[in-house]
Design goal:
Elements: E1 7-11, H1 20-35, E2 39-42, H2 48-58, E3 64-69, H3 70-74, E4 84-88, H4 91-100, E5 104-107, H5 112-126, E6 134-137, H6 144-155, E7 168-170, H7 173-181, H8 193-196
Parallel strand pairs: 1-2, 1-5, 2-3, 3-4, 5-6, 6-7
Helix pairs in contact: 1-2, 1-7
């Protein structure tokens, strides 16, 4: 089927106390997103890698939709590069809205929040609630241990082999966008009844 991607959901660190290489990768990803005529859906903050990727994309013409829970907004974490801003009641509603209005996912380097968001999207795809391209941008080999853990899950039969096709590991921003550009929207069945019925 043809590529249906318009809005890419970005999960990324809000920390600014990280190595410069991660900021460079985020900025370059923003350029790639804009150059390929995609828009961004993200958590709404102007901090850390979230601010870096959206700044690079916005100045080159991308629309930026920020989605933030009321509690973070009340704490003074205000929107940065948003052309559209949505407030939600809580974190669960935030993730649901980001899922609803995006067509693809890219996870940059991040902490517990990024990991939680990525994991939920993987499970949603595994269960058939979405069929989006999900990319892990492995900048500076940041996700090496997570990728090894994913392999352990599969090798120990906690998930079937086909689970490896839930996500794509990209080494560079260009590779991430190339994967999304060429993604085939085909229905796949990720659940193995022999495993899930034990």
């Amino acid at each position: 089927m043809e590529n249906k991607v318009k809005n890419i959901c970005i999960f990324a660190s809000s920390s600014s106390n990280i190595q410069k290489i991660y900021f460079n990768e985020a900025y370059n990803l923003g350029i790639e997103i804009a150059n390929n005529n995609y828009n961004i859906v993200y958590g709404g903050s102007n901090l850390g890698l979230m601010g870096e990727v959206t700044n690079a994309a916005k100045i080159r013409g991308s629309e930026i939709t920020g989605v933030m829970p009321q509690k973070l907004y009340d704490l003074g974490i205000h929107p940065g590069n948003c052309t559209k801003f949505i407030l939600t009641k809580g974190m669960r509603e935030r993730k649901a809205k980001m899922d609803e209005i995006s067509d693809a996912v890219i996870a940059l380097a991040g902490g517990f929040g990024t990991l939680e968001e990525l994991s939920e999207m993987l499970v949603q795809k595994q269960l058939g609630y979405n069929n989006k391209p999900i990319v892990i941008l492995n900048s500076n080999n940041y996700y090496k241990n997570l990728i090894n853990f994913f392999n352990d899950i599969i090798n120990e039969n906690f998930a079937p082999e086909i689970t490896k096709t839930l996500y794509y590991i990209a080494k560079t921003p260009k590779e991430a966008i190339d994967y999304i550009n060429n993604y085939k929207f085909e229905e796949k069945h990720y659940l193995d009844k022999k495993l899930t019925l034990k």
